[in-house]
TrEMBL record, chains A, B:
Belongs to the FAD-binding oxidoreductase/transferase type 4 family. The keyword Plastid does not apply. The keyword Transferase does not apply. This is Glycolate oxidase. PANTHER family: GLYCOLATE OXIDASE SUBUNIT GLCD. Coiled coil: none annotated. SUPFAM superfamilies: FAD-binding/transporter-associated domain-like, FAD-linked oxidases, C-terminal domain. It comes from the Bacteria. PROSITE patterns: FAD_PCMH (PS51387). Keywords: FAD, Flavoprotein, Oxidoreductase. Residues 50-228 form the FAD-binding PCMH-type domain. Its cofactor is FAD. One of its GO terms (molecular function) is oxidoreductase activity.
Length: 497, 497
């Protein structure tokens, strides 16, 4: 077992000396940081509520250095936490107090774009948007587009299996990655996946995508590129009832339409963003749907007409189509700025990320309205409606311990209700440290045990990003909430099939 | 470790008595077979060259029986091999001589079709085509369509991650399955995946799909359904040069077109199938491409026009578009009957299943022509060109040991060349027992070791479908061929990026 700070015999200074002595010969001097003022910038990722300074930070520049650092840490039993741009929202890259943060920002080269095969081979530290920028001269782009795409790295996207507004039509990271190259905790080079249709044997690529840096350290990625659509147009629909908007989403999908984006904002969120971006949103609507079509002009014209008919048939009180690209971007401006806009109306907010079957969207929105009363806190809703991926923003003041406590209970209830509706506790932000307890609710002890065994198959000593994603059986016992997955039985009205 | 027939002390009769004594109280009498005349029908799957009678066959009818049988076999250390319809082409369901075949044919109920969510929940023994038939009244169907879809089961499709002619556009089984329910080797119930966008934690669903029954026994599956397109039309293009046909495939994809099907047949195959189906194929062409578009009439008209332009621009000597549904089905009739047609021109054939990056299609076709001379055997080619998934059919006479030997060498060389071109040894048929040696070529010892560890994380004693898919390190050492994955260096002209 690795030395842990929980261990009463843990001597931080001695451990640091030992680690620096082992790593200094392996890295250039500027690539090893261990003074407090150097390591403090690495103390959290985008989930700023959880902070921890690492013992040291390594910034390797070559794969040989990554392998050597991993081997050295493995020999010493020192935990290793890989880190991309630090934009994650669940604390997946939060440092370990007795561990090394392996910062991969310098792996920022685009190795090759192959327009014929429609692939890009890039290092792990390349920014998501930089791939699309490099592919643009060939009329191609990389489809998954998390809100943080200007900053987040492809390595981080793989760790969290990131999504974005386009993933309803184009898939999650998993569906857009062909191959990864990286290193095991022992520092052995491995490649998972293939540039061909499918790799033989067990699908280790799929397992590594979304594993939050707990199975291997990825250094190089081959992604699929897709053709930039000739045209995109967006419909903005107003609804006087949240239930009608939720049902419109289900009706669109049931009609065989797969929008390039399908997003919903409720009234509190619309008010917050309109004040911020002045996009001309309908402030009287209980919910607004943004529904995008992309493709050739013929395809878009035909699809927009069908979307419009379904939205009006579902009770939309108003439907506007973007007349040009400027208007389309204005329609999206509020959605894209929902998080900063929320920061202006409340001192703090907690963003949830649960996902439910689309048909239950209206149900959970009405449930959340009830929870607002129960916990005495407001909640603004913006989400990837087409995917059923909710992002409720619970508004609170972290300086008020009672509000913080109520906010946590509110969030946990949203997650439990999502699981009971047949959903999951995280759609695209990952589990990290934030949703460890919720994993106890979603998975049975046998299922969690299976995940722990898989983790051990890659990392028997448990030194790769320890304490993330998979709660220990002990932790779940302490949390004391029941596994509710099969709790569907408690909601017989939902047992539609 | 499980008792093995290789063990000199293995007493088959005693082992059988012990197994029957343990299972008889758990199953109705008609659901437990152990006489030779009862178990012989189970001695092989679609790969008839490998045969082995199991110790016994259980045909459970309920999940409780599956769990009880697994628990009993686990306690006795008896290997268990799950079986669907037995249509697999790589011997994945070949019995173990000291083991139980768990035949799941009676799990044949369609539990529910949910047209709104566009999902079907079915038992594992439901036939692939039966799902589409049940969904048809709602205008929906299940997209992956292996050639055996009239007979093969969804459980078997999951074990092999099956594809089909539509998987270029609609994805493999992995991309069309939302959730599975099943049992571990110890008989514990587990569920992997979710009806929502993405499940939290490690992606055990993706790992189980394609794991050839080595990690768990799946009893229930929730799949995605897609809307039946309003219209489908097919182009048939002739080429006077295999290289031009291969390059046309790459050009279509590079043009941003994703055909609903994109299949190629070479001249020997065209001659064989024309003689069989009389579809009016161009017998003078060196290669024929079938290229399908589906969608709304507007989408199809626009896409067919673009496909036609790319095919002609790539040097097609003739391009015909299907004028009606009858003609479209006639175009496809030869492709769909390629395997039986081959059976008429040769006493035996061996079907390969390797997959390569599309851009190398022409290269490997020319290589295969060279190999025909080298081994003195003919090879007819039919394949999922859009996926780069080859199905070369090596024609031989199994009664001639020298031909059989040359055929095996020919097949191994195709697989090694595919791996060297950046491909894989199997696209959709699985590894089973047939391609165990080729796995040594595709994967490094570290990568195979990682797969073995994952297997052990689910099944420490190794009693779930032992001896399939993942070769032991010892076996690869005996096979004596090198891992060639990074052998790309030996083909610097291929290092396009």
């Amino acid at each position: 077992m690795n030395a842990s700070a929980q261990d009463p015999g843990f001597d931080r200074a001695a451990r640091l000396r030992q680690l620096v002595a082992a790593l200094a010969p392996l890295l250039p001097p500027h690539a090893l940081l261990h003074q407090a003022e150097q390591t403090t910038p690495y103390e959290c990722d985008g989930l700023t509520a959880y902070r921890q300074r690492p013992l040291a930070v390594a910034l390797p520049e070559t794969e040989a250095q990554v392998a050597a650092v991993l081997k050295a840490c493995h020999a010493l039993g020192v935990p290793v936490v890989a880190r991309g741009a630090g934009t994650g929202l669940s604390g997946g890259a939060m440092p370990h107090e007795a561990g090394l943060t392996l910062a991969l920002a310098r792996f920022n080269k685009i190795i090759a774009i192959d327009p014929e095969a429609r692939t890009a081979r890039v290092q792990c530290g390349v920014r998501n948007l930089a791939i699309s920028e490099a592919a643009a001269p060939h009329g191609l782009y990389y489809a998954p587009d998390p809100s943080s795409q200007i900053a987040c790295t492809i390595g981080g996207n793989i760790a969290e299996n990131s999504g974005g507004v386009h993933c309803l039509k184009y898939g999650l990271t998993l569906h857009n990655v062909l191959r990864v190259r990286g290193f095991t905790v022992e520092g052995e080079a491995v490649e998972f996946g293939a540039e061909a249709l499918d790799a033989a044997g067990l699908d280790l690529l799929a397992l590594v995508v979304g594993s939050e840096g707990m199975l291997a350290v990825v250094t190089e990625v081959t992604v699929k590129l897709v053709p930039k659509p000739q045209l995109a147009r967006c419909l903005m629909a107003s609804f006087d009832d949240v239930r009608k908007a939720g049902d419109a989403v289900a009706a669109l999908i049931a009609a065989g339409i797969i929008p390039a984006g399908l997003e919903m904002m409720d009234k509190p969120m619309t008010a917050a963003v309109e004040d911020f971006v002045h996009a001309g949103y309908d402030l009287t609507a209980e919910a607004i749907l943004l529904c995008e079509s992309d493709g050739t002009p013929e395809e878009v014209a035909e699809e927009i007409a069908r979307m419009d008919a379904v939205l009006r048939g579902s009770g939309a009180t108003d439907v506007q189509a973007s007349a040009d690209e400027a208007q389309r971007l204005r329609f999206w401006s509020g959605r894209k700025n929902a998080f900063p806009a929320s920061g202006r109306i409340s001192p703090d907010y907690m963003c949830m990320d649960s996902t439910i079957p689309r048909k239950h969207l209206a149900t959970i929105l009405l449930d959340i309205q009830q929870m607002e009363k129960k916990y005495g806190l407001r909640c603004a809703n913006v989400f990837h409606a087409g995917d059923g991926n909710l992002h409720p923003l619970i508004l609170f003041d972290a300086n008020d311990p009672d509000q913080l406590h109520r906010c946590e209970l509110f969030g946990a209830e949203i997650l439990e209700r999502s699981v009971a509706l047949g959903g999951t506790v995280t759609g695209e932000h990952g589990v990290g440290v934030e949703k460890l307890n919720s994993m106890c609710v979603q998975f049975s002890p046998e299922e969690r045990e299976q995940m722990l065994k898989l983790k051990a198959a890659f990392d028997p000593a448990g030194t790769l990003n320890p304490g993330k994603q998979i709660p220990t059986l002990h932790r779940c016992a302490e949390y004391g909430r029941m596994h509710v997955k099969r709790g569907l039985l408690a909601f017989p009205e939902l047992e539609r099939f």
